[in-house]
Amino acid sequence: MQIGVNDVRQHFINELESEAFTIDKTGQKTIEMLGASFVANESSIFGTPNQEYIDREIDWYLSGSTNINDIYDDDRDPPAAWQYSANRHGEINSNYGHLIFDYKYYNQYDSVLDELTFNKDSRRASMIYQRPSIWSEYRENDKNDFICTNAVTYYIRNDTLHSVVQMRSNDVVYGYKNDYAWQTYVLAQLSKDLKVPVGDIVWQVQNLHVYERHFDLVK
């Protein structure tokens, strides 16, 4: 039986109570779940989604810009996490809209749409976010952006569209909420284009984690 968000939430509560910590490269304590797999049936595991930021990030993804300074334009500075990932010019690798819509990455959204239009039982309707060249690209020009999402595969089963999101790494507090918002957006758009209802999102993460600075939210 597939677990849900509340089961994941309880795992982290238990890990914190047990002080089952790992230490990351900065010396910060984390609690984590390896090989997590659950139905993403809530928009947040801990904390409250910031809808204003989510809307900005989705618009930025859809623009295809790979510069974090375009998230808010001149209104304010980009979020600290994006500043940490970007090079000195603000360039990153992880504009997810760029990765699935742009011709540079083979128009993956359109390929998935075509695949499921002509073969609704397909098991190859995948949008691949990661790439082997990331091993050199993640640190070029002082970037620190090793793409977190590996791939997302879409399935039509019982005339309903489901997705399986596969991630390399996912921060529970900020990462999950914003990534969930993006994946629900893409799933809804694909559902509309295919004219089938939206089903489940299965969330699979190699390393799902909470940083020490957010331990106070684990409750």
Essential attributes:
eight-stranded mixed sheet
Task: Quickly count the helices.
Answer: 7
Number-wise, the strands total 8
Spell out the helices and strands N to C. Answer: EHEEHHHHEHEEEHE
Distance between the termini: 25 Å
Q: What would the principal axes of the Cα set say about the shape?
A: globular
Report the biggest beta sheet as strand number plus sense, adding barrel if it closes: 8 strands, mixed
Q: Stretches where pLDDT falls below 50 for ≥5 residues?
A: none
Q: Label the structural class.
A: alpha/beta
Strand content: 15-25%
Mean pLDDT: 97
The proportion of residues forming helix, as a percent range, comes to 25-40%
**Radius of gyration based on Cα positions:** 18 Å
Question: Quick summary of this structure?
Answer:
With 219 residues, the chain is an alpha/beta fold.
What this model shows, in words?
By secondary structure, the chain is α/β, with parallel strands linked by helices. It has 7 helices and 8 strands. The chain has helices at 5-17, 51-63, 80-85, 96-101, 108-118, 134-137, 175-194; strands at residues 3-4, 22-23, 29-39, 126-128, 149-157, 160-167, 170-171, 198-211. Strands 1, 2, 3, 4, 5, 6, 7 and 8 form an 8-stranded mixed sheet that branches. A hairpin with a 2-residue loop joins strand 5 and strand 6 (160-167). The longest helix is centred in the last third of the chain and has 20 residues, at 175-194. The two termini are 25 Å apart. The relative contact order is 0.19. The mean pLDDT is 97.
